[in-house]
Design goal:
Blueprint: E1 3-4, E2 15-16, H1 18-51, H2 55-82, H3 91-124, H4 135-157, E3 162-164, E4 170-172, H5 180-214, H6 220-254, H7 258-276, H8 278-286, H9 291-313, H10 334-345
Helix pairs in contact: 1-2, 1-7, 1-8, 2-3, 2-4, 2-8, 3-4, 3-5, 5-6, 6-7, 9-10
Length: about 350
């Protein structure tokens, strides 16, 4: 069970899919349990930033939407692997779920690149290129990214993605060894979808670090926080996407036999599972570290605490209004939290061109 034959029209290529029945369910369940609520909360905070006319919120919102689309396809993939790689739905649903799986990678890469460039312009050139840091410009860029990936996904709809293996299982989105049409699209995915955005991201964050180090009007704690964020962003980006694209390129260049496909299968699918963790990392990196999000979380935490207190003691009818807990004799910790957060993320005033703008990374 769990072995797959690539195509009935070609010589048999039987591959052991044990990794799908052991590691994949653990990863999918973890991402579902952690990633879904985290991205729902991230979606809300992204909406708040858009409402505040912050163009960075547009990229965060779209990034979260892409992650949620992929997370919604995970129950189908979970059932698929638990049934020993047997797709029990229609051919079109296989193509749609496969597109959500693969295209989420490049939509995420695109918006991560947009966020990095936006932050570079905000930190290194706060008084220039303001026309590129508007809500309208962010919406336009977002439309281009979605349109590009949706057009690329049409390529997969033109090919059959469900084949039967030797055990009469319907295998979804797997061909061994690679077919010629897959090599061409893989080169495009590696060069245009990954390598080019990676170069832009690294260049942007190099410029951010240089601007931070040259700033004389910024507290050292603020500089350390920005540098930790930059480093963690690059590390997570590389950890989630680099192994997969290296192996994707290796397979596209040298996979011409069943023996090679068998030797590369486990490593390739392990790297594919790593890309799934991007859905968990995105909310942590790009939403829960900003000053405005910390304030919103403090308010939300205070509201939840007030609601729980009232439900336990006086009932919902006697709940005091948010922001005026003194009326019911319950002391709120929100002002103290906000003071601590503001002191942590505050950027002191500095002469023009020296200090970082207060909202540069928010």
């Amino acid at each position: 069970m769990g072995n797959v034959t690539a195509d009935t029209s070609r010589p048999n290529c039987t591959i052991d899919h044990t990794i799908h029945q052991t590691l994949a369910p653990v990863v999918y369940v973890t991402v579902l349990v952690v990633g879904f609520p985290a991205n729902c909360l991230s979606l809300y905070f992204g909406y708040l930033q858009i409402k505040a006319r912050n163009e960075l919120g547009v990229y965060l919102f779209n990034l979260t939407v892409a992650d949620l689309f992929y997370i919604c396809s995970l129950p189908f993939w979970l059932q698929y692997v638990l049934q020993h790689d047997n797709w029990s739905y229609g051919d079109l649903s296989c193509q749609v779920c496969g597109i959500l799986l693969y295209e989420n990678i490049y939509i995420s890469v695109g918006f991560l690149c947009c966020i990095s460039i936006d932050r570079y312009l905000a930190v290194a050139h706060p008084f220039r290129f303001h026309q590129f840091r508007t809500l309208k410009a962010a919406v336009g860029v977002s439309v281009v990214i979605w349109a590009k990936e949706l057009l690329a996904s049409v390529y997969f709809l033109l090919h059959t993605e469900v084949v039967e293996d030797e055990d009469q299982h319907r295998v979804c989105f797997e061909h061994y060894p690679l077919e010629p049409w897959q090599r061409n699209i893989n080169y495009y995915r590696f060069l245009v979808g990954f390598l080019f955005p990676l170069c832009l991201l690294l260049a942007a964050y190099r410029g951010i670090l240089r601007a931070v180090r040259r700033s004389h009007g910024t507290q050292q704690s603020r500089k350390d926080q920005i540098q930790r964020l930059v480093l963690s962003t690059v590390v997570i980006f590389l950890a989630c996407f680099l192994p997969y694209h290296v192996l994707l390129l290796v397979r596209s260049l040298w996979e011409s036999s069943c023996q090679f496909a068998q030797s590369a299968f486990n490593a390739y699918h392990f790297s594919l599972l790593l890309t799934t963790f991007n859905c968990v990392a995105d909310p942590v990196l790009y939403c829960f570290v900003s000053e405005t999000t910390h304030r919103d979380m403090a308010r939300l935490r205070a509201a939840c605490r007030a609601l729980l207190t009232c439900s336990r003691t006086r009932g919902p009818r006697e709940a005091y209004p948010l922001g005026t807990p003194e009326a019911s004799g319950v002391k709120s910790e929100e002002p103290e939290l906000l003071r601590k957060l503001q002191s942590t993320f505050q950027t002191p005033n500095s002469p023009k061109g020296e200090g970082l703008p207060p909202a540069g990374l928010a």
